[in-house]
C-alpha cells in the first residue's frame, strides 16, 4: 500500500528526543527516509535506531546548527545518505523563561541563533538542493503559540518565534515559483511523552502525536495548495494566555 511520503527524504532538526523524535518517527511511518539531526550523536542514533527497529528508514547526524558549518553539514549528510532532500522540518529550538530584566545578552543571542537564524540557514541550504532537483519540496517550521500571542516572561522566545512565522511567509513567497512550499506549525503547550497518543479535545494539551500528524500532512501532497500558512494547534493553552 502506497504511503503519503513514499520515495521522499526528510531532515528533522532537533530530533534526538521529545517532539523532534515524534516528528521523525511519524514521517518515517508514512514512508519518508529520515535524517535525524541533533546536537547529541547518542540521541540522534537512538532515534534513528528506534525508527529502523519499526521498519522505517533513518540515518543520524550530530551537528550544532548554530555553528558556521552546521546547517550545511546536515544537508550534506542527507545527500550522502539518501541522494536527495524533499522535506525539511525545522524543529530544533530552545526556551528560556526569565523576567525581562533578568534576560542576559547571552540568553538573547542563543535564543535568536537557535530559533531563528539556524532555521533560516537550514532553509537556504535545503532550498538550493530542492531547486537543483527541480521537483519542488516542503519545508515545515515548528513555531509556537508564542509566535502569535506574546507573554512577558519569554521575550527572546516570542521575538524568535514571531520572526520565524514572518520568515515562513517571506520564504514561501520567495520559493513559490520553484513549487517549494513553506509552512509553520504553532503548538501550544505540549504534553510530554505523548508520541503515541492523540489529544482528545481543545480543552486538553496538544500531544506530540497531534503535532506530528499535522506536520506529515503539510509535508505531503495532501497540502499541495498550502504555503505561507501558520497552522495553530493550541489545545487548552490559548485560554491560559492573555492576548
Detailed description of the structure:
This protein has one domain: Rossmann fold (3-Layer(aba) Sandwich), CATH 3.40.50. The radius of gyration is 17 Å and the shape is globular. The protein starts with 8 loop residues before the first strand and ends in a 10-residue tail after the last strand. The chain is an alpha/beta fold and 243 residues long. The chain has helices spanning 18-29, 41-53, 70-82, 105-133, 155-175, 208-219, and strands spanning 9-13, 33-38, 57-62, 87-90, 137-142, 180-187, 190-191, 206-207, 230-233. The mean pLDDT is 94. Helices cover 41% and strands 18% of the residues. It contains six helices and nine strands, in the order βαβαβαβαβαβββαβ. A seven-stranded parallel β-sheet has the order 3-2-1-4-5-6-9, with helices on both faces. Strands 7-8 form a two-stranded parallel sheet. Helix 2 links the parallel strand 2 (33-38) and strand 3.
Amino acid at each position: 500500500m502506497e504511503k503519503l511520503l513514499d520515495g521522499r527524504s526528510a531532515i528533522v532538526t532537533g530530533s534526538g528526543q521529545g517532539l523532534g523524535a515524534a516528528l521523525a518517527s511519524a514521517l518515517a511511518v508514512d514512508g519518508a527516509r529520515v535524517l535525524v539531526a541533533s546536537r547529541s550523536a547518542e540521541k540522534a542514533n537512538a532515534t534513528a535506531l528506534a525508527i529502523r527497529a519499526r521498519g522505517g528508514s533513518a540515518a543520524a547526524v550530530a551537528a550544532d546548527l548554530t555553528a558556521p558549518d552546521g546547517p550545511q553539514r546536515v544537508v550534506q549528510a542527507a545527500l550522502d545518505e539518501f541522494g536527495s532532500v524533499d522535506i525539511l522540518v525545522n524543529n530544533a529550538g530552545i526556551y528560556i523563561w526569565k523576567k525581562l530584566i533578568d534576560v542576559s545578552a547571552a540568553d538573547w543571542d542563543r535564543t535568536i541563533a537557535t530559533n531563528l537564524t539556524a532555521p533560516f540557514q537550514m532553509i537556504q541550504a535545503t532550498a538550493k538542493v530542492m531547486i537543483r532537483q527541480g521537483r519542488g519540496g516542503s519545508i515545515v517550521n515548528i513555531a509556537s503559540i508564542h509566535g502569535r500571542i506574546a507573554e512577558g516572561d519569554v521575550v527572546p522566545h516570542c521575538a524568535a518565534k514571531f520572526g520565524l512565522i514572518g520568515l515562513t511567509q517571506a520564504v514561501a513567497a520567495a520559493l513559490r515559483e520553484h513549487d517549494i512550499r513553506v509552512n509553520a506549525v504553532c503548538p501550544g503547550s505540549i504534553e510530554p511523552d505523548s508520541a503515541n497518543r492523540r489529544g482528545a479535545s481543545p480543552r486538553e494539551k496538544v500531544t506530540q502525536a497531534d503535532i506530528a500528524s499535522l506536520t506529515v500532512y503539510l509535508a505531503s501532497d495532501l497540502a499541495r495548495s498550502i504555503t505561507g500558512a501558520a497552522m495553530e494547534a493550541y489545545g487548552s493553552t490559548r485560554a491560559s494566555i492573555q492576548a
